[in-house]
Amino acid sequence: MTIHRIEPEEAQAFLDSGEGYTYLDVRTAEEFAAGHVPDSINIPILVRNPAGPGLQPNSEFLGQVQEKLAQDSKVITGCLRGGRSLKAAEILTENGYTNIVDMRGGYDGEVDPTGAVVFPGWARRGLPTTTE
Questions:
Q1: Under a CB-based contact definition with an 8 Å cutoff, are residues 55 and 49 in contact?
Q2: Is residue 51 very low, low, confident or very high in pLDDT (cuts 50, 70, 90)?
């Protein structure tokens, strides 16, 4: 199944359209607190591993989304660089969500193997951010 991906400016236009789009930020709570798209919802797809370093899948992700968003909700998924949000979009689509798009580049941007940004994300493009 192919997920439709949009650029950050298109995501902002959807959010500003008055058509009821919700930005679902799937980063960790710590990443979200450091800065995010205004009026977004944070439901991490990965959570800190209580047994040690690193992240592990959030086994409650789908249920947490279902508690907040109906299956016909208009949802834009986003993360830090674009990988986690694409996976979240796939999970939601596979579980009956019908209006999912993924924001390419995430909050910060896609990077190459050296860490150089090759596709700037939401914040690097100067779009509105908040820590509230």
A1: yes
A2: confident
Cα four-point dihedral sign 87, 92, 95, 100: negative
The encoded tokens of residue 39 equal 């009026």
pTM of the shown model? 0.95
- Please check whether residue 116 is in contact with residue 108, taking contact to mean a CB–CB distance below 8 angstroms: no
Q: How many residues does the chain have?
A: 132
The label of the residue with tokens 């199944």 reads: 1
Which of 114, 123, 112 is CA-nearest to residue 78?
123
Catalytic position from the list 15, 24, 45, 79 = 79
Q: What is the pLDDT of residue 26?
A: 98
Q: What is the pLDDT at residue 20?
A: 97
What kind of architecture, by CATH, is found in domain 5-117? Answer: 3-Layer(aba) Sandwich (3.40)
Q: Catalytic annotation on 79?
A: yes
How far is residue 47 from each of residues 9, 52, 69, 111, 125, measured CA to CA in Å? 28, 12, 20, 22, 27
Instruction: Say what the pLDDT of residue 120 is.
Output: 98
